[in-house]
Amino acid sequence: MTTTVTAKAHTNIALVKYWGKKDAQLMLPQNGSISLTLDKFYTQTSVIFDNQLEQDQITFNGQTLTASKAQRISRFLDLVRQRSGQSAAAKVVTENHVPTSAGLASSASGFAALAAAASRAADMQLDNTALSRLARRGSGSATRSIFGGFVEWHAGHDDASSYAECLQDPVDWDVQMIAVVLKKTQKPISSTAGMARVVATSPYYPAWVQTANQDLVAMRRAIQARDLTTLGEIAETNAMRMHALNLSAKPAFNYFTAETLTAIQAVNDLRANGITCYYTLDAGPNVKIICAGHDTAMITRELSRYFDSEQLIVAKPGPGITISEND
Ligand code: PMV
Fold first, then answer.
1. Who is most buried in 7, 106, 154, 308, counting CB within 10 A?
2. Tens digits of per-residue pLDDT, 65-79?
3. Ligand 1 lined by 281 (C-beta under 6 Å)
4. How confident is the model over 184-197, as pLDDT tens digits?
């Protein structure tokens, strides 16, 4: 029996997106990405390796996962076992603090928390860079959730060179996000399959990589200059180019619903009326609005013409990972 280790990681939203792998096994992305970690949504995971267990036992929000659902997590634990020399099965208890049915990606905070808790429970003492590399193997976006504030994931060219780094934390200026949580629909395609398809079939893919690399340079500057307008413009254009890849894939797919387009139009209308706000979208219908904190009340009031108040969640920049040993 080892010690129970608990880790807490917050989710992040990419401002310059990762959308395509160049190595699926090592989870190396085609281009670097930049994100903002959010305070509202997080995952807390406890791990203990226990010789008495016959197989990994995984509980998610109070429910024991079936073997098939637990497979992705067990595969990740195998990597930790292989690296640490720990051979026992693990008991994993995960609480996901993302509002019920929010449909916001939880793999980022989920695998970041799992990487931190499992590696420490297996007696590996990893620094945040090494943790970021490990989390990457669970889910690409988890690479960035080790850190708080603005974070950049360097694409790299092998396991050692592909990791995230903090660009700014704490975030000492007024930038926030409003998550517009839309009706949960069946995802048309998983992010893994969607990415693979655009890399293989979109004729625009090389242009995406080229412009995403330019976006990284400009985004770094905007963050450093604390320039919300430039940050928002880059993020919005980058998101739409990512979704244009999906529309140009063969066969084409997209994650938008009618409500997604309503939210986009509402942001465009607000901006036409002089409000500094921009949208970004990931592999799902939800819209995230980038704006200043002092405008969130007005923007949510405006959006409440189309959406219920519980669909509008205001989030601030959030912290990096925390790890504690329970006994
Ligand atoms: O979380 P993953 O590794 O399946 O990839 C998610 C990719 C996007 O959320 C769409 C973009 C990003 O960089 O987070």
1. 7
2. 888 779 999 999 999
3. no
4. 777 889 999 999 99
Q: Could you give the residue range(s) of every CATH 3.30.230.10 domain in the chain?
A: 5-171
Is CATH 3.40.720.10 what the domain over 176-315 is classified as, yes or no? no
Q: How far is the centre of ligand 1, averaged over its atoms, from the C-alpha of 277 (Å)? A: 22
Q: What is the mean pLDDT of residues 139-143?
A: 97
Q: What is the dihedral of CA 305, 42, 153, 36, to 10 degrees?
A: 40
What's the CA gap between 134 and 132, in Å, rounded?
5
- Given CATH 3.20.20.210, say whether it is the number of domain 5-171: no
Cα–Cα distance between 209 and 219 in angstroms, integer? 15
Contact call for residues 91 and 47 (beta carbons, < 8 A):
yes
Rounded-to-integer distance, Cα 3 and Cα 189, Å: 39
Confidence of residue 1 (pLDDT cuts 50, 70, 90): low
Mind giving me the DSSP string for 72-99? Answer: HHHHHHHHHHHHH---SEEEEEEEEES-
Q: Is the CB of 18 under 6 A from ligand 1?
A: yes
Chain position carrying tokens 């592999």:
283
CA distance 143 to 112: 7
For ligand 1, what atom is nearest to the CA of residue 17?
Answer: 13
- At 150, is the pLDDT very low, low, confident or very high (cuts 50, 70, 90)? very high
Backbone φ and ψ for 279, nearest 5 degrees, come out as -115, 155
The pLDDT of residue 2: 75
> What ipTM does this complex have?
0.98
191 in contact with ligand 1, CB cutoff 6 A: yes
Tokens at residue 174, please?
């007024």
Which residue has 């994100």 as its token pair?
35
Four-residue CA torsion sign, 35, 264, 103, 28: negative
Classify strands 287-291 and 176-180 as parallel, antiparallel or unpaired: antiparallel
